[in-house]
Amino acid sequence: MINIYSDSNQTTLQVLWQNMANIDNTIILTGDFNIRDSDWDPNFRHHSSHTNDLVTIADNLDLELSPLSNPGPTRFADNPHDTNSIIDLMFLPPGNTGFGQHMLHPKICKPSDHVLLIIEIGIGEINTDINIWSIKKNSKEEKDFITFLVQGVQNLDTSAIRSKANLETLVQQLADIFKNAWNTHSKQKHITKHSKE
Questions:
Q1: What digits encode the pLDDT tens for the residues 103-159?
Q2: In which domain, by residue range, is 143 found?
Q3: Domain count, the chain
Q4: DSSP code at position 15
Q5: What b/e string do you get for 62-85 counting C-beta neighbours within 10 Å, with b at 16 or more?
């Protein structure tokens, strides 16, 4: 889930655009996009230059603009010369059971000038079947692990730190102590959907 606030310069859109390749498995893109556009606001007659960027970002995340089940403004104007607007949006996978089902709750908006958006979404069951390495809390292995670490750190010679190279060598020795302690005292566990939390 990505919940955003985009300022008047659309900084968040720029960040999303630059990082699209690193974002995956997003089931909701929502927030205050600060984009007024006739595509989602029937009371606004203009098309924003930022809309195409937003729609392209959503499309690259396999998301589409989800229509409100009870359409209305998402932000109430704080002065009588402005009009209420729709700038809070929600993008979902079109096949999700929540698509087109999110609702406005204008009675819960105070003290904010934005309306609360509420949705229930369907999340498919995840097939968890992995192997992990761990140390059981309060076990003999945990005590041995800590003892190994303490002895290793105590045996480090810190008197020779006179250069960056000496420091890097010491840091590598410390990393090796932790790695060896973990490899020696952790045990492999097989995790499935039936495993305890």
A1: 777 666 666 777 777 877 656 665 566 778 888 889 999 999 999 999 999 998 888
A2: 129-192
A3: 2
A4: H
A5: ebbbbebeeeebbbbeeeeeeeeb
